Amino acid sequence: MSVKNTFGSIKGWSSVGALCALGLLAGPPAGAAGSGPGFDDPDNWPQYHRSHNAWRFSPLTQIDKRNVGRLRVAWVHQPGVITHGLQATPIVVDGVLYSIAADNNVFALDAATGRILWRYTPKLDPIVKEVFYGSASRGVTVGRGKVFIGTLDGRFVALDQKTGKQLWSTQLSDLKNEYGALFSSPPQLAGDILFGGTTGGDQPTIGKIFAVRADTGERAWTFEVPRDDPKSWPGNSRKKGGGSAWLPGTYDPGSDTIYIGTSNAAPDFNREDRLGDNLYTATLLALDPRTGKVKWHRQEVPNDTWDFDAAYEALLVPDGRGGTSLVHLNKNGFVYVMNPADGAIRNVWQYTENMNWAKGVDPKTGLPIDPVHPETGKQKLHCPNLLGARSWNHGAYNPNTKLWYSHGMEVCNTVTSARQGEVPGIGMLSLGLSEITLVNPPGKKADGWLGAFDPLTGKQAWKVRFELPPLSSALATAGGLVFTGDMRGQLYAFDADNGKELWRFNAGSGVRGGPISYAVNGKQYIVIPTGLGSHAPGFLTGAFPQIRDLPGGAALIAFTVD
């Protein structure tokens, strides 16, 4: 079956020395916690995850457990369009906040006041009104004097960082002939290379990762995710195999390596025409940034038939022995701990509470044990659901507590697999099913949570339950706090050590974006993007019908203490 963009109906949106003296830093400079971009100036939030290791951790301490209850609103920015809410993680460099709203509208704001410094509104190809994954974007990238975006009509665009003037634009994806494969996430920098992947995992096309020269927009290389191998992709299945890399990758300057994960194969729930391992779908890739060649790969779900992407963030965390481990959550409900040099498995641990798609994952090989695939014409219950044990909202790691804070959802789905016919238009998906409904786990009530874990072993420190699965990313700070938001619009600060709620604020609309922290003129701020959006809430209405009544919105809210 081909699925059109009609899931859900939610009101207002479519169916997601001196620093220490000022009390801003805990102990030594932030460089003590790591190296590379993102650690140089603790006042900034200079890239998507703040640092190349994907920690989403701020070393600032002015806002801490003692005073977080006194947080007040410093300013509010409303971009003016609420379609799909706000899903971005803002960037802050030298007192200027850069963010993106619906339809690729980019803003530069005074990070202390919220005053608009410049705005960029692109002229988009009208074809974007026809695509499935339209309107929303997850952020911008700042560097080399430029602000970079990936557009809804398939381009990388560079803007002047000071003025917002467009410097170059490079067309990379052909939406008309590639079923609306577009950029919903910001491309990332690897030196002078700008790289990123498109949507397309659920569409009958070849998912791609693109790279251009950051200074000029000149094409550098293109990586096709479905591998050209008849054993992996029999017949013509590769040409409709999906496999996009739709979330931002990371670049580790120490090893000169791009880490980027790929999506499921298409059609999602029917494998009759693709009975192979379907490389490189559902795979974490380590790429050479200059050539795009594979250094190593770890396919976490061979022949994926559950929509279990491997597109989520790749954390680099201390392994306790003076080295580093790579930690990667898959939608399938398992966390893979690897050697970042070669992808060798060090451990695999179960993240979700409800899992029946396989008997488990072998902690030595990383391969599924006795997976249970959908069967054509038969309804089956699979846990976790197609949105994953966690949606794409990112976790955060605190090097002081050595804990990883991440959300989860305990939701299953019933699926009836079906042969996929021709997909009639670019606004449709290639799911390979006749029915899908999100439901409660057997004998339980569906819900969500925020948990704190040892990322290497999975040992749980604490867990907070939510009636509705949170779709916000997490923020950890050296002040001993974890910030997040829920689908109802409640914003929270929790004690990083024990999960005790220390602060709450009603924002009016749910959270889908990424909270950040930064400082301007000696004052620390917390900024949380609010406004519920993305397709995930629409899918979730099967298990949570009350989501239909939640209001939309779009506002950046900045908080500080006096």
Find the CATH superfamily: Quinoprotein alcohol dehydrogenase-like superfamily
What is the CATH topology assignment? Methanol Dehydrogenase, Chain A
Please identify the oligomeric state: single chain
Strand content: 35-45%
CATH class, named Mainly Beta
Overall average residue pLDDT? 93
Shape: globular
Distance between the termini: 56 Å
Tell me the radius of gyration. Answer: 21 Å
Describe the overall structure.
The protein has 562 residues and is mainly β. It has a single domain (2-560), classed as Methanol Dehydrogenase, Chain A, CATH 2.140.10. Helices cover 2% and strands 35% of the residues. Strands 2-34-35-36-37 form a 5-stranded mixed beta sheet, with no helix packed on it. Strands 3-40-39-38 form a 4-stranded antiparallel beta sheet, with no helix packed on it. The radius of gyration is 21 Å and the shape is globular. Residues 1-37 have low confidence and may be disordered. Residues 45-344, 447-515 form the Pyrrolo-quinoline quinone repeat domain. GO terms for molecular function: oxidoreductase activity. InterPro entries: PQQ_b-propeller_rpt, PQQ_rpt_dom, Quinoprotein_ADH-like_sf. This is PQQ-binding-like beta-propeller repeat protein. Belongs to the bacterial PQQ dehydrogenase family.
Fold topology:
Blueprint (H helix, E strand, L loop, with lengths): L1 E3 L13 H4 L35 E2 L13 E6 L13 E3 L2 E5 L5 E5 L5 E5 L20 E3 L2 E5 L4 E6 L5 E6 L16 E3 L2 E5 L10 E6 L5 E6 L25 E3 L4 E5 L21 E5 L6 E6 L14 E5 L5 E6 L4 E5 L6 E6 L9 E2 L6 E2 L9 E4 L13 E3 L4 E8 L1 E6 L10 E3 L2 E7 L7 E7 L6 E7 L8 E3 L3 E5 L4 E6 L5 E6 L9 E5 L2 E8 L5 H5 L14 E6 L2
Parallel strand pairs: 2-34
Antiparallel strand pairs: 1-30, 3-40, 4-5, 5-6, 6-7, 8-9, 9-10, 10-11, 12-13, 13-14, 14-15, 16-17, 17-18, 18-19, 20-21, 21-22, 22-23, 24-25, 26-29, 27-28, 28-32, 29-31, 32-33, 34-35, 35-36, 36-37, 38-39, 39-40
Cofactor: pyrroloquinoline quinone
GO molecular function: oxidoreductase activity
Protein name: PQQ-binding-like beta-propeller repeat protein
